[in-house]
Amino acid sequence: MGRYTKILAWLIAAFVAVFALGAVFFLLFFDANDFRDDIAGAVKDRTGRDLVIEGDLSVAFFPWLAIEIGPTTLGNAPGFGDKPFAEFDRAKLSVRLLPLLFRQEVTIGTAELTALALNLEVDTAGRSNWDDLLADEAPGKTEAGSDSGKAVEVSGIDVSDTTITYEDRQSGDTYVLSGMTMQFGRVSDDGTPVPASGAFHFEMQPDKISGDIEMDTELSFDLKKSLVLFDGLRVKGVVEGIASSPTSLKFETGGIEVQTEKERVTMQPVSMTLLGIDLEAEVEPFSYSASVEPVATIRTDAFSPRSVMHLLDIEAPETADPVALSRVIVDAKAAFKTNAVEMTGVTIKLDDTTFKGTLSVPRSDSGAYRFDLGADRIDLNRYMEPAAEASQGARGESVPVEIPTDLIRPLNARGNLRVTAALLGGMEFQNVVLGLNSAGGRMRIHPVSADLYGGSYSGDVRIDVSGATPVLSVDEKIQNVNLADFTRALFKQENITGTINGGFVLTGRGDDMAAVQKTLGGNMSFQLIDGTYEGTDIWYELRRARALLKGGEAPKPVLPPRTRFSAISATGVVTNGVMRNDDLSAELPFMQMTGRGTVDLVAATVNYDLTARVLERPESLKNVTEAELNDFTKAVIPLKITGPITSPSVKPNVEALLKKRVEDEIKSRVFDKLLGGDKKTPPAGDPGAAAPVEGAPDETAPAEEAPAEQTEKEKLEDEVKNKLKDLFGT
């Protein structure tokens, strides 16, 4: 046996020696660079592209059959410019020789690729610069099972310093992966999973998002089914561009299946953390043959909007309720379209309010937000400024509410919001409908409608900040609103009941609401129906004033003091924040009133002069005497309304009454004394006669006086004037 063993060893040694000599001879007389043009020509024939091998081609022979290629460039597809489709600095591939020769086993060493630059492009017509490389071969060209029985194994793949650019001219999106390193473990055709890991820097335009990512997974290949499987993909890193400072990112899924022939991706449920928000998603299978537009059902855990605002370098507002804006949960089906993320089946729980509907978020700065949402109940007071801060500044002065110019000017949004119940101030609105249309610095809130205390509210609000000074315009109406509930909620007053109708069309300019109020112009109107004014008994005040004028004892008041009214109406013109009203009319059960005055909308005060006529309706008057009724029904009574809008003072104008009484008495005595009682002309100020209303025509005078009568009147007036001069010594 020893002898045969030695013979075998010598034979093997001889074979190796011959093989080695052959390899030396091959290396001495073979130059792989001689085939450079042949390789380039073959690539040109197959792809129509130019292959330029600028570096050397080197070949190793034993124990590995290895080839190493220096700097190489592959040209782009026609119509995509001169930029190379792919280029690299170095590539190396080696195959173990003896297993290939004796057992037909393909054992490849670690494949190496350095400084690969791959440029993927999609033109405006949707054509890609790699379509020609993936063209199907003619049927029957590839023999099925031709590689049957040949084992294939790759020890590993090492990719370093790689850059991949994807530019989609249809959508305007550009994605860049740079500084990429990828390591793959053993790859074989026995289906054993391949461990893979890598890291890269990425950039996304026009979103201006970038970051550094690390990832690891296990890959499996089923070449017969054209499948690539990712088992347990895990991604982590740091992202910039979505917050004021870099923020951490985590992404994990149980698996991804890529059908390369169908260009289709299927993913298992995904978990993700970004901006401190934990998110779960179920992604529907999607295609990557054109634009990638996946659809996913997403759910977030509860998160704090204030914390997110802090990460985004947005100052969280101070709110009346310090725990407001502390909890949000989002559930929606999101379709990631080219221009926007379109969400349907949206459920957003903000604190104690639930919103449901649809929402579209643009993926570019020029895009528009779209929404159609409904909410159950929201207390807006929780989200207002704290009461002390809203009403006073550092020194106690009033702080005006600014027009949010910086928010409105860039806002591009359109949508509708419906709210079952909304609290604002002390007011509660039901079935609120609000439409928003904002673009180019012009915001319109229309339609606006709501049920309000048994009646309705409707409005049209416009804010224009496209110019240097904001302009606010409003057109609002209320109809059949319960006046008691309305004033209680709005002014915290309980001094009036009835029904109110009203409206106003106003426009103002200014950087804050104080400036807008001072420049308001337009018109207003209101009508009060079938109510009472608590705290003032006009009938008692009239009786008390009469007693004062006659020197008698004031009557006893009827408590509680109140005045009933059938209707009160007015229309007015607003100039610089002050409404001028000349047609105030009031119908009381026992009285009719007319007058004029002003309402200062800035100071919230009223100043009205009224004239009242008591009607001969004793059944409507309490404790009236015949003398009182006789005096009041024959007189025109001046009234004065002054003070705050919320609690004005309504009293007879005693000064006007005294002045009128003195004038009437003087005129009566002068006529009796100076004219000897011969003149039958009644004194102009007969206490029993109704004084003319200012501006009203004299119904007792003829339309035109005869010249003789006019002359007689002038003579009488002159005579009276002269006698008065004598009487008063002037």
What does this structure look like?
- The chain has a 37-stranded mixed β-sheet that branches.
- With 730 residues, the chain is α+β, with helices and mostly antiparallel strands.
- Among the domains are: 27-132 and 151-205, no CATH class; 656-728, no CATH class.
- It is built from twelve helices and 37 strands.
- Helices cover 19% and strands 45% of the residues.
List the helices and strands and how they pair.
Blueprint: H1 2-29, H2 36-47, E1 51-53, E2 57-60, E3 64-69, E4 72-74, E5 86-88, E6 90-96, H3 97-103, E7 106-114, E8 117-122, E9 152-168, E10 173-184, E11 187-188, E12 194-205, E13 209-222, E14 227-240, E15 247-259, E16 264-267, E17 270-274, E18 277-283, E19 286-287, E20 295-300, H4 305-311, E21 328-336, E22 340-350, E23 353-362, E24 369-379, H5 387-391, H6 405-408, E25 413-424, E26 427-439, E27 442-452, E28 455-464, E29 471-482, H7 483-491, E30 499-509, H8 513-518, E31 521-534, H9 538-550, E32 562-575, E33 578-588, E34 591-600, E35 605-614, H10 626-633, E36 636-644, E37 649-652, H11 654-674, H12 707-728
